[in-house]
Design brief:
292 residues, mainly alpha, 2 domains, 0% strand
Length: 292
């Protein structure tokens, strides 16, 4: 098919073409992660659709395009590490952007409407696929993560001003928070067991405990190696905000929820508790005359 292209289209179409062949390869790799099951047909079918779209663009460009191998590799490993749901949802956000780029071409090129309809079908099909274990336990992860962030940032802020020595702060914080992690895990086990849910109580408690302990280790790490307790506190607060940001971004992608509101709420609570605890440490050290 030989079609006259203006300069704008001449620049756009090869990009669209490469994007489609790249997504074809990504979905093929994601299909391999699903394994031999009925659900595998969904990413396989989407991969075939993307290949067909690529061939449609080839009719206009009269040339072949190589996939973006780096992008394929990145999305594959994102899905491996953060879960298939996160990887696919992130992909779909890219497809929404591509869909918006295609719409202005509806009146100019043939078959664009069919491509847009395919993109809409992809989203509906993927919703059917996405029932990942870690999403069923996201509430347990939130419980462990949020509780550790709020309690430990508060405890570290108070201990930092009260003790002013990184080793006792690290020791006190570690003992207290490991005990709290075990307590939270046990509470989540009993809570899940009493609910009518598809979650397994033991798994729920493990997700809660692991999220709690991982957060504790990250926040308390500088107190084990550095001597300046204010630097350590700054690290802990900064790390807490980054953890909150990354986790809320993850949730916003996989559950299609707004990022900003959840992030500000969670960060505000954690930093607010840390600020109040810092004042408590000041009171203990100066007003009551307690020093260690």
């Amino acid at each position: 098919m030989k079609i006259e292209l203006d300069e704008q289209l001449r620049q756009q179409l090869p990009l669209f073409q490469r994007n489609e062949i790249t997504e074809h390869h990504i979905y093929k790799k994601l299909a391999s992660m699903v394994g031999p099951s009925d659900n595998r047909r969904i990413p396989d079918q989407i991969a075939d659709d993307e290949l067909r779209h690529y061939r449609e663009w080839s009719k206009y460009t009269q040339q072949e395009a190589a996939p973006d191998k780096l992008k394929v590799w990145i999305y594959y490993w994102i899905s491996r590490v953060l879960g298939l749901t996160f990887g696919i949802k992130l992909m779909e956000k890219g497809e929404e952007k591509a869909e918006n780029n295609y719409k202005p071409l509806l009146q100019r090129l043939d078959n664009i409407e069919a491509i847009l309809q395919d993109e809409d079908k992809h989203e509906a099909a993927l919703i059917e696929l996405l029932d990942e274990e870690r999403l069923r336990y996201v509430g347990s992860i939130v419980l462990g993560l949020n509780d550790a962030l709020v309690e430990l940032t508060g405890a570290l802020a108070g201990l930092t001003l009260a003790l002013q020595d990184t080793r006792p702060i690290a020791l006190s914080g570690t003992i207290t928070e490991i005990a709290a992690a075990l307590s939270m895990g046990a509470s989540e086990y009993l809570s899940t067991k009493s609910e009518e849910t598809t979650k397994e109580p033991l798994k729920a408690s493990i997700y809660t405990g692991v999220a709690y302990i991982a957060t504790v280790l990250i926040l308390i790490l500088p107190y084990l190696f550095l001597d300046n307790f204010y630097v350590c506190l700054a690290w802990a607060l900064t790390a807490a905000v980054l953890i909150i940001a990354m986790f809320n971004y993850y949730i916003s992608v996989v559950k299609d929820e707004p990022f900003k509101k959840r992030f500000l709420e969670m960060a505000g609570v954690g930093l607010g508790v840390a600020g109040l605890s810092f004042l408590v440490g000041y009171v203990v050290r100066t007003v009551l005359g307690v020093e260690i």
